[in-house]
Amino acid sequence: MPKSIDDQLSELQTDTGEQHVAVTFTLNGVTETVVLPSRTLASDAIRHHMRRTGTHVGCEHGVCGACTVLLDGNPVRSCLVLAASLEGHSVTTVEGLVEPDGTLHPVQQAFKDCHGLQCGFCTPGFVTTIAAFLEDNPNPTHDEATDAIAGNLCRCTGYQNIRASVLRAAEITRERAGQFPLGVDDEATRDALDRQVRGSTQPVGGRAGRS
To answer: Residue 194: how many CB atoms within 10 A of its CB?
Structure first.
């Protein structure tokens, strides 16, 4: 017969001399309970206890942003959050952004389209950060896209293609919603496109702005 959570906690306390807690929360749409030391960080719980290794750990000081996950839809540095504080909440990692049928999230597709990664270590944190940003601002400007990624560090790309990925993800989102991918289809929208940032990447519908 499986041991109860209370029995597990009691045994762990006796065996290790360290307090353990049982934490129940929703991870990528699935509600799970995990037993772990009370000092465990959310990043370690997700990676080592729950084996969702898409979340990367870099500086462990909340600076680089590689460990960013969505907590109830909001981006947080999981290396600064105790796992025990996740009780009753919903966490989404980069793996959880993929649609059930395997379709990539618009931000994931945009990173592919715009070559927004090189080594890829920082990518999960950028993807979750940008996904949350576009929920609040689905039509970002060039400057807003720059601000959106300013809190995450990348040592490879120079940020240009990551910024392009923000704008590309907004296009993909509009296209999937049946809208014109570049926003309002008028002369001002087309003239406002920054071709230098977008490079040679074309909108989903194949309609490019004027250079």
So the answer is: 14
What pLDDT sits at residue 177?
A: 87
Phi/psi zone of residue 50: left (φ > 0), alpha (ψ -120 to 50 degrees), beta?
alpha
Q: Taking the complete model, does pTM exceed 0.85, yes or no?
A: no
Please say whether the beta carbons of 78 and 41 come within 8 A. Answer: yes
As a whole number of angstroms, the distance between CA 99 and CA 50 comes to 20
Tell me which DSSP letter residue 82 carries: B
pLDDT of residue 190: 59
- The mean of the pLDDT values for the chain is 89
Q: What is the pLDDT of residue 187?
A: 62
CA end-to-end distance (rounded Å), the chain: 69
Do 68 and 125 contact (CB within 8 A), yes or no? Answer: yes
The single residue listed with the structure tokens 């680089």 is 64
Backbone CA torsion sign across 31, 33, 38, 40: negative
The SS3 of residue 113 is: helix
Contacts of 136 (CB under 8 A, 6+ apart): none
CA distances from 200 to 106, 162, 176, 209 (A): 18, 14, 21, 11
26-79 pLDDT, tens digit per residue, is: 999 999 999 999 999 999 999 999 999 999 999 999 999 999 999 999 999 999
Q: CA torsion 173→107→68→199, rounded to 10°?
A: -120
CA 56 from centroid of its chain's CA atoms: 11
